[in-house]
Amino acid sequence: MTAPAAAPPFHRPGDLGEALRLLAAHPEAVPVAGGTDLMVAVNYRLTRPAAMLDLTRIGELRAWSDAGDAIRIGSGVPYTRIVAELATVLPGLAAAARTVGSPQIRNRGTLGGNLATASPAGDGHPPLLATGADIEIASTRGTRTVPVAAFFTGPKRSVLQPGELITSVIVPKAAGPQQFLKVGTRNAMVIAVCSLAVALDLETRRLGTGIGSAGPTPLTAPEADLIELPWTRPGLFNDALAEEFGRRVAAAARPIDDVRGTAAYRRHALAVCAARALRRVWTAAHGTESTR
Amino acid sequence: MPEPANPTGPAPAMTPTPPTRAAGGVGTPPLGTGGVGSSPARPDAEAKVNGAFDYASDLSFPGMLWGHTLRSPHPRARIRSIDTTAAQAIPGVEAVLTAADVPGKLHYGLIEDDQPVLSLGEVNYQGEPVAIVAAGSLDVARRAAELIEVDYELLEPRCDPEDALEAGSFFRYQPVRLGDPDAQVPAAVVAREYVVGMQDQAPLGPESGAAVPTADGGVELYVATQWVHSDLEQIAPCLGLEPDRIHIAIAGIGGAFGAREDLSVQVHMAMLALATGRPVKMMYDRAESFVGHVHRHPARMRYEHAADADGKLLYVKARIVLDGGAYASTTEAVVGNAASLAVGPYEVEHVSVDAWGARTNNPPCGAMRGFGGVQTCFAYESQMDALAEALGLSPVEFRRRNAVAQGSKLITGQIVDAYDPERADDGRPFSPLADMLGRFKEIPVPAVPAGRDIVDLPGGTGNTTHGEGVRRGVGYGVGLKNVCYSEGFDDYSTASVRVERVDGQTVAFVHTAAAEVGQGHWSLQAQIARTELGVDRVELLPNDTKAGSAGSSSASRQSYMTGGAVKAACEAVRELLRDRDLADGPVEATRVFRHRETKPMDPVTGQGESHVQLALCVHRATVDVDIELGLVKVVDLTCVQDVGKIMNPAALEGQIHGGTAQGLGLAVMEEMITEQGRVRNASFTDYLIPTILDMPPMRLRIVENADPEAPYGLRGAGEPPTLSSTPAIVAAIRDATGLALTQIPVRPEHLTAHLGRQP
């Protein structure tokens, strides 16, 4: 293909410091790692970046590390590695990563890109909300940490400021069973009609929930999280409880009608998924006999 | 001729058609093999697998410009003015053309010339071409197009086909009348309305081609198309050129399925090439492809089926409304198929069918695999199930009792023939359909396995069920498809075969204009030449307008028609070789092959032997449905198809798998969603086609009831599976859910709306 008349500048920093300096000097430069969202938008001419900042040569963004109670995942770690390397310690996030696109997309796409795009349908977001992850954001002015629940400000909008780069996501290690369920009209490689993550923390006896693709941003469900669970007598868990949880999750959603599904279906599906998810995590924690 | 711009590329762009070369020639199977009935390696296989195959989108010429189309964003509008000044001022822009620049005829069309080359003051659908640009790069051409100022006066689009019919706006009305349905006294009646969404062919290769001006003022076109000679007939008048000044060669085709019957880039890129004197390439992106070709007609159909106490069909009434969209395309022929095949392969003596093709401001609809047979098949098969249930009969038994047999009449009066007359069931005429239905007994429905992975369950990797809410269902579907062009069309194909000695080897050169759209037609031509001539080495020449017309790679006709032409040309060469020696020089023959004549349908009664050949396919689908979430996993598709003669087992299986998958797509996910004429999902993000996790492995039983009229007894095989897989899958979902399901694609909300659990 013939190159465009004037190709936009393509900056290729070798380390984080250089990346942040370039971003400070060229705040119009759009960071790109896997490019699985950005390049599609470019091809569809929905965006025409004035410049790009390639993150793929920055080793520290492409590694994860054990931070004690949490895993610090570099923003440039592709989904394939999250699935392969973090499924035991972050089962909810790994399950979500498994549903992203195709194998080729998972090889390139990153959690950092998912967050920066800030789509309400981003697969990575619900498990981060359910586990209370933090987003680490850096610029030449310093580093700040934003709880994921405060990160999204609207459809495809976040707290990211010009000159800022997502460097890592700090995800608490699973302290109990976790589930991620994604509803789509195809059995793979599909944008979520709605999605749901649930994390059960057996130490703090807390429940965490994240809802995807059913509101202007990914959502939490605080009322649902506060549902009273029979911690002292797990065998008392029953379908009524699971369904009540489903109702509360559905009530927390703010879905719309669009080509992927109706608002009514999204609420219904979230209720079903939430009840199933809660049954599954409770069963996983306390044994099969208590669930029916 | 200019040299290719990229000499290191896999194959020269000036000869885009002979991937025979790219793949090392087709004359390479072991000696004495590779004939009819075998599966020699496809000539394009290796190049397609390793990425070296030259698709039309890979074309490149030195000094080449890129063309781009400005399309109407509105479904209906009057154009007050077009200002191209700003677009022309951009550096690198070489031409900006509008309707005023069309050198010849202003309209074209496959059947009726009603589609403007470029809009003539009015646009009638979203995506109608308004202006075209040529520039040094695609990016510049696109930016220039954005700067063309079009002043639109918006008009209210007509998007409801019923409104169109009421206003007398339609392309064809075709009734079928037989007997007296109203005088019958039935034991059971089922009346329902069915809705079929707009399916897209979704070929992976976007519309693409290149036009190269020639020294004599003519133009050469390289383009992915299904029928070069039809293209030529339409292009030449629009360019104001004699046909002999235009040469068209087929460039590598990335799937077609009917989407490449209508013109797309052809006239536009030729206009730009002639205006600039330089080669011009056009290539749609995915979004443009979705509006740059016709789609399958969406349909609304009201059916009433009645049976007597013996479980025999008594009458069928049907009102079929297809939405043809803004321009004619092939709607006329599609309506003919929908009407003549409205009841399927069942005997019934009292029929009243009214079929319409409405003209609206929705996207134009035309050819897609199944061509008018798909919509009605969903309706009549759904009706057959509903009536069987009303009668207390199994779906298979009810179909068996009503199956057409040797000598039966279709509703058009067409005699069902060409089935093996030697065979009979208990003294009754042989019914291939009854025989095919009976074969499912040998292939049991798969058992539910223990310990399934989530990818084996509805929702797949979405992890939505571990078995919760999952119910299994089984359903059958039968499809009847006409093969070759119908209703009196002069349908023919031409082939030239030359045999000569090359380097001490006898080589057969085969030249046709037939399009290899992925179906395996190149292999088939070589196989026929090997079988007929006893040669091992066959070379295929480029498929272009230097050969006579081969007709379209459509209507499941190319094995029958161009296969028949190659066979006839080989037979002629064989005859010539009786008294000639190859040492004295090459021997060559050209033959034109025609199928038997067909008749138009009577405009009032629909009667007439309108079809050439009829092909049957039966599917049994097994599905698992998550009835709480409305998600579907098709776990098995078993298919029994009558192909007359297996010409190439591997290619045949590929056709059945592919046709079945396309039918699966229509059953559960594929739909172009429009809202007041605007397409809402012109991308593969939201127009979903089945993945490997949606399409189960298939079990096939191929039946060979030879058709004595057809070459080798073959029966067209590409389309029938597309008809029958859809109703089979929907029947299986009904079986699992107990819901009526009268609309396809079946969406999750259709399966859950009744649950009333929305808080």
TrEMBL record, chain A:
A molecular function (GO) term: FAD binding
Keyword Flavoprotein: yes
Ranges where the FAD-binding PCMH-type domain occurs: 3-176
Sorted UniProt keywords: FAD, Flavoprotein, Oxidoreductase
Protein's recorded name: Xanthine dehydrogenase family protein subunit M
InterPro entries attached to this UniProt entry: CO_DH_flav_C, CO_DH_flav_C_dom_sf, Diverse_Substr_Oxidored, FAD-bd_PCMH, FAD-bd_PCMH-like_sf, FAD-bd_PCMH_sub1, FAD-bd_PCMH_sub2, Mopterin_DH_FAD-bd
Species whose genome carries this gene: Glycomyces luteolus
Database matches in SMART domains: CO_deh_flav_C
